[in-house]
Write a structure and sequence with these properties.
Largest sheet: 7 strands, antiparallel
Shape: elongated
Helix content: 25-40%
Oligomer: single chain
Number of helices: 16
CATH topology of the largest domain: Glutamine Phosphoribosylpyrophosphate, subunit 1, domain 1
CATH class of the largest domain: Alpha Beta
Structural class: alpha+beta
CATH architecture of the largest domain: 4-Layer Sandwich
Number of domains: 2
């Protein structure tokens, strides 16, 4: 994890389209809208009759598909992917979609999430003769599909899903169909849309807005959609179970203009800020948010207490990724490479800084120092989620548990570490009230990183290997 930006890292974003003559171009714009979900690599695969084309590379969408790269991706259907690696090393071999040819034709596979039993399945397949080209857990699924005994790819896909565990959203492109899948607990988001006669699937609805597609609905947990020239078929590969969408989709990961499982992300974050103001008000002059994901919560906090909301921190949008390693002198500048304080706003003021989470605490400490150096007389930190105490194994890159500050420090000890005048988090039940949930036992969210209560069974040896 980057020492200069102590945050939970994005997962990945997937996109698929079937039945449009400009499939590759639309996939490009869809991935551009999902860029916030992964800035490490990007890729698109298309199918033109029985020929599959693909291109993938390291970097942002605009970098990977510069020049005339899209012109070579012909076809009426496409799947795309933006990646932040949660399993597998950062290399082009792990960039997706992964493309394969086997006895039933061509297959391109893109995945958001993490398979908690990937290592066991990988080892079994290797013993049976499979040769892996990457270290990504996604390739495990491709091998399961290719080794299937059924007559059709979709039957082999369904059979493969019975052998994997974890959180996932898959988009799979074959010569004759587009398949979209969401894990049985609904840990990872996936939605369905339509653009004219073409069907579209994506991790977030903001991708539909970008290409002018209409949102139809969220893909249900345990559901598999098969889209081909005959239209759309909806099937279940797993029995319905209690939904467990990752709460951090709404707290931090998703774009504010996305709607996920019936909730608008901006409105949820704003409500979290309002609730935070009620349970942890501060005697202050101004409220600021940490860009970009905490802005909505900061606005809600300020409105609830009738305090002015101001832009007190400015993000350098060009510092997110670089191939140049900073020198030790630059590294010592810490968060200044990413954020700067607006001195005229915070100088001489009692400031409430609203953020979405505290992971290791290093960034929070640097931000508090930054605001004090800019002249803030007091800095009160308010967090629109509970303390992160446990690692995530479903596709979010958290630190190992011993690196999570809330796993071994109290709220008061965290306050001392970051140097704030006061610090407050939301409790789980209070956070869930932003969704209208009456009690934690009735909600449809995964809060394992706060509570340690995982929605799927995770064995201790899996925990240790996945944390590493």
């Amino acid at each position: 994890m980057d020492d200069l930006w102590d945050k939970l890292h994005e997962e990945c974003g997937v996109f698929g389209i079937w039945g449009h003559p400009e499939a590759a171009q639309l996939a490009y714009y869809g991935l551009y809208a999902l860029q916030h979900r992964g800035q490490e690599s990007a890729g698109i695969a298309t199918v033109d009759e029985l020929t599959m084309h693909s291109h993938r590379g390291m970097g942002l969408v605009t970098e990977v598909f510069g020049g005339n790269k899209l012109q070579d991706l012909k076809g009426h259907a496409a799947v795309g992917h933006v990646r932040y690696s949660t399993t597998g090393e950062s290399s082009v071999s792990n960039a997706q979609p992964l493309v394969f040819s086997f006895r039933q034709g061509n297959l391109a596979l893109a995945h958001n999430g993490n398979l908690i039993n990937a290592r066991q399945v990988h080892d079994r397949l290797e013993r049976q003769g499979s040769i892996f080209q990457s270290t990504s857990d996604t390739e495990v699924v491709a091998h399961l599909i290719a080794r299937g005994d059924y007559l059709t790819i979709e039957e082999n896909v369904r059979d493969s899903l019975s052998m994997i565990q974890g959180g996932y959203a898959f988009v799979i492109l074959t010569d004759e169909q587009l398949i979209a899948i969401r894990d049985p607990a609904g840990l990872r988001p996936l939605c369905l849309g339509k653009l004219g006669d073409a069907y579209v699937v994506a991790s977030e609805s903001c991708a539909f807005d970008t290409i002018g597609a209409a949102f139809i609905r969220d893909v249900e947990p345990g559901e598999m959609l098969i889209i081909d020239h005959q239209g759309l078929r909806e099937e279940r590969f797993a029995a319905p179970r209690k939904k467990a969408l990752c709460t951090f989709e709404h707290i931090y990961f998703a774009r504010p203009d996305s709607d996920i499982d019936g909730y608008n992300v901006h409105m949820v974050r704003k409500q979290l800020g309002r609730i935070l103001a009620r349970v942890a008000p501060a005697d202050a002059d101004v409220v600021i948010g940490v860009p970009d994901s905490s802005i909505s919560a900061a606005i809600g906090y300020a409105e609830e207490l009738s305090l002015p909301y101001e832009i007190g921190l400015i993000k350098n949008k060009y510092s997110g990724r670089t191939f140049i390693q900073p020198s030790q002198e630059l590294r010592s500048l810490g968060v200044r490479l990413k954020l700067s304080a607006v001195r005229k706003i915070v100088a001489g003021k009692r400031v409430v800084m609203v953020d979405d989470s505290v992971v290791r605490g290093t960034t929070s400490a640097r931000l508090v120092t930054l605001l004090r150096e800019a002249g803030a007389t007091e800095v009160h930190v308010r967090i629109s989620s509970p303390p992160v105490k446990f690692s995530c194994f479903y596709g979010i890159d958290t630190s190992a548990r011993d690196e999570l500050i809330a796993a071994h420090k109290s709220v008061e000890e965290i306050r001392e570490f970051i140097g704030a005048d006061s610090l407050a988090f939301l409790e789980e039940s209070t956070m869930l009230s932003a969704f209208g949930a009456e009690a934690p036992t009735e909600h449809g969210f995964c809060n394992a990183c706060f509570t340690g209560q995982y929605p799927t069974e995770i064995y201790e040896n899996n925990k240790r290997s996945l944390e590493r």
